[in-house]
Amino acid sequence: MFVRWLGAYRNSNHTLFESIDYEMDREESEEWACEHITKSTGSRVHAKVGLAVDPAFIFRSFKGDCWSEYDHEGRLYTTRGRSQIQNAHTTKWGHTESWGRGNHFTAIVVKDYWQISGKIRHQIKLAAEKHGLEILIMDRNSGHVKRLDAYSRQQ
User: Fold this and answer.
1) What's the CA gap between 34 and 1, in Å, rounded?
2) Residue 102 contacts by C-beta under 8 Å, 6 or more apart in sequence?
């Protein structure tokens, strides 16, 4: 699974809802970084809310965190060499990084859903309804996801 984690809403004047809108309105040519989550790694990124990516729109992957930046044309480039990228994945906080384009997101992914505030959960639900996305709750350690409505049926 590939997830474009959101963090901009924490240190800006934008709400989580506005950040999701921004991602959903991206142009086809716009590039962005995301985490590649596997059963063996789980998620190592600290963010709690992200967008699941259609894997068909991933165009490059790395074996670690390449610390990507944007050039003056809006294209991504790595700021780490190959050995630094591979070594970053072996550390506790290292993660695999991939790059994608456009707005090909399939769901809102949330870690620690029941621990985040009701206000944030409400914004997530509103954004999911607006954009026709399902909500997936992710186990931080395993990367396993379960649909939010599956929890509702259990209660």
Assistant:
1) 10
2) 26, 27, 28, 29, 30, 57
Cα–Cα dist 27/34, whole Å: 17
**Could you report the per-residue pLDDT of 51-76, keeping only the tens digit for each?**
999 999 999 887 766 677 788 888 88
Residues in contact with 119: Cβ distance below 8 Å, sequence separation at least 6, in sequence order? none
* d(C-alpha 77, C-alpha 79), whole Å: 7
Across 73-102, b (16+ Cβ under 10 Å) vs e yields eeebebebeeeebeebbeeeebbbbbbbbe
Q: Can you tell me the distance from the alpha carbon of 30 to that of 43, in angstroms, rounded to the nearest whole number?
A: 24
The mean pLDDT of the chain is: 80
Retrieve residue 92's tokens: 């506790």
- Number of structural domains (the chain) is 1
Q: Domain containing 138: what range? A: 2-154
